[in-house]
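DM between two lab members

TW: hey, do you still have the Zn(2)-C6 fungal-type domain-containing protein entry open?
JB: yeah, one sec
JB: this one, 608 aa:
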Amino acid sequence: MFNRTTQLKSKHPCSVCTKRKVKCDRMVPCGNCRKRGQDSECIKSSKLIASSSSKEYLPDLLLFWQNYEYWVTNIGLYKMKTRDLTRISTTLSTDFEECNFWMNYLGKDQSFQLMNFAMENLGVLYFGSIGDISELYLRVEQYWDRRRDDTSSVDSQYWDALIWSVFTMCIYYMPVQKLSDIFSPYPLYEHFGTGKELSWDDGLQLAMFKNFTRCTLLQLKKCDFMAHPDIRFIQTYLILATTIFPCEEPLLANSLLTQCIHTFKNFHIDDFRPLLNDDPVESIAKVTLGRIFYRLCGCDYIQSGPRKPIELHTEVSSLLQHAAYLQDLPTVDIYREENSIEVLYWKIMSLDRDLDQYLNKTFKPPLKTLEAIRRELDIFQYKVDSLEEDSRSNNTRFEKFIATFQISTVSWKLFKMYLIYYDSPDSLPKIIHYSKIIISLIVKNFQEKSEFFNKHPMVLPTVTRVVSFMSFYQIFIESNAIQELLVDFTELIANLPLIFGLKLDKLGYLIDRFTKLKQLWEKVRLLDSGDSFHHPVFKILQNDVKIIELKNSEMFSLIKGLGSLVPLNRLRGESLLEEDDEESKESTKFRDIVEGFQSEYNITNILT
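TW: and the structure you got?
JB:
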């Protein structure tokens, strides 16, 4: 496809014919220049026009990116899962049998080693979700007593689900070397029946994580959580959400999250405001409920999308509504310490929400809104810098990493908005600056032997957003600084934890696809100085959005045999060109290029 030579046509005469004041056939090179042997001069002038055209249309392309980022790199890659209604379902007995293997594989001593790892390294991920942390050791001991006596109740099964969510989180974050010190691979060799000896690696860790997740969900099924709702159901989900579970199983995660919201509402748990007549126990309970609420809002926002219409986080108003008020009160210390780390994380995340709300919108953010977010980020950066960090404690270092990474991510998005909507002179350098900070934060974890921090579920989506935008920008505008960044990101992605699974592979595919689009952009030149801009690359990118959007809204009929209500050819992008401009319809070669690329590099390959 890329070897074919395409003679393009311009809407305007070439500069050579214009100077000679002769009629031009507007081909590149034109007939007059070919006869006079001035092909190179004609093509050179055409390239100059094409180059300026890139910059001329860059603002429109960047505005289009907001839509592309929403549908492709946000919804398509992380919040959609292909529904396979033809798959062979597992029976409940098979589910029990598989989970029994893993529950027997985990011994008592090993369970306490996992709990020790959670206490020493992962406290920031779940301490806020549980009232009394020290109680967990007692609950683990009681779990083994129940296993021995073969007795259980709904109450005990909720505790089983909660402690298994902690075990699952540990399996996800624990370094492979430490896992190999705790667990023997030989029972797994026989269980998987691979025909070869197994050794501990990232692939085996991922398989173990998925099966521990399955065991946790089985414990919840045993609780009959819809008939017997309990706060521990929410706590269990919040701990699972500290892993890639919501990205791996977005539909299931949305269903569980919806039930969490219903549980929260049904028991009026969202009413955690302290009152003067609260007794000490009630006060402590309300503090815990407040932390759970903000963690739940965070999960709810991260999972928000067109397939999750029920939302909780929208009940918390924007922080910017209060920012101006605080600025007018000199006696108020705007740098005051947050009530909890959960509140701090949510406030930073709410600024992310204030920016991302414009991704799929036709209106732009007011400049004063961006300036207010910039001020708030400065305040939060001051607070995070003030957080005490014990170099010997992974808990405090992990806590600070999450907050710093959040601020860097929101700052990057902020200056991306400045570039797209206001073309501020310092916006691109700032984007590059915060991209480097994001890279340095991840690399620092490798250097300090804390690479398991990089398994946090916010890391891969952030890297995806940044590297995708840089790859998109580099298609149209050459930048040495961005090219160097892309090289750094390529190396970084190659070293990210393999426990991210298929999502890591899909990101690699998306980056390679941008590279192919750049090659196509350089191969095919369409000249245009009018009101419209036509190029196969732009058409392919537009079709990407349409295909993902159609796939997301795909409805399966409840009547057996009718299948999808969205025609299959539209999901493949075959008929999307027919809806658009006349220029595209007139060019058979244009159509061949677009459909050929879409066939070879299908955007639906990013879906899982």
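TW: got it. The first strand starts at residue 8 and ends at 9. The radius of gyration is 28 Å.
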